[in-house]
Amino acid sequence: MLKIAYGTWYAHPLPEGHRFPMLKYELIPEQLVREGTCTEDNFFEPGPLDEQWIVGVHDETYWKNLKTLNLSPRMVRSIGFPLSAELVYRETFIAQGTIECCHHALAQGIALNVAGGTHHAYPDRGEGFCLLNDVGIAAHYLLTQRLARRILIIDLDVHQGNGTAVMFQREPRVFTFSMHGRDNYPLRKETSDLDIPLPTGTPDEKYLALVAETLPALFRSHQPDFAFFVAGVDILETDKLGHLAVSREGCRERDRLVLEQCRQAQVPLVVTMGGGYSVRLADVVEAHCNTFRLAQAMFF
């Protein structure tokens, strides 16, 4: 059975002006159940996250100041959300959801987190609506627990996975691949193991050709035994922040290519949702739901 991490904390309310991006976390599960792709049995609520996994990849001082709400005003501005104990608590549950997805993926081939993909969180700071790097935390967990030996992070959110790139720059067991918009946030890009910056207006044909060409080569060269996929739908032409020109059908095909590569290689896969900022929330929700539909159809 397809297992999906989702809990009441995922849709934690924010002050006016910050709520819109969070609504998708409620609407995605509702849509999947309403249409019959999933039932309530597909969803599990993560438990609390042990702090040892946070400080395994994040600086202890940063974590201490984050959980006690003692970050500097400048650091809070970089995060982009008003800081609160509830928001920090929410991030810990999402990261634990990604860890628990790892166990389901090892058993069944794939698992998905309704949230996550918080790839702008650096070891020593948060940025871009990301406080803790859930994929980074889960990758470290797998290596420490000897559940994986070589991990591939496939980050196809439209924004570079800058925090993840820095987090694993000295860890040869984790290969970071980011294909992202060249001309958008973050203005200063970091160095992943492989970066493919895309020019503004990149359409389906060019985008999908790069995915289809790159993934098999990465699997051959790195030979991962576990993979993470940050499946941001901010690549859509309707996205306010993305600046690419990928259709909803193109986004779905991108997901199919990633899932099929992992399925054929028999590499367990955890998928996190990443970003999505289209003007119409329905465009965001539908594109994200396509990822879950494909996982259900291809693996079960």
From TrEMBL:
Molecular functions per Gene Ontology: histone deacetylase activity; hydrolase activity
Q: Which top-level group of life is the source organism from?
A: Bacteria
The answer on whether this UniProt entry bears the keyword Transferase reads no
Histone deacetylase domain location is 20-290
Enumerate the Gene Ontology biological process terms.
epigenetic regulation of gene expression
Entry's InterPro entries? HDAC_classIV (IPR044150), HDACs (IPR000286), His_deacetylse_dom (IPR023801), His_deacetylse_dom_sf (IPR037138), Ureohydrolase_dom_sf (IPR023696)
Which keywords are on file for this protein? Hydrolase
UniProt record similarity statement: Belongs to the histone deacetylase family.
**The name this protein goes by in its record:** Histone deacetylase
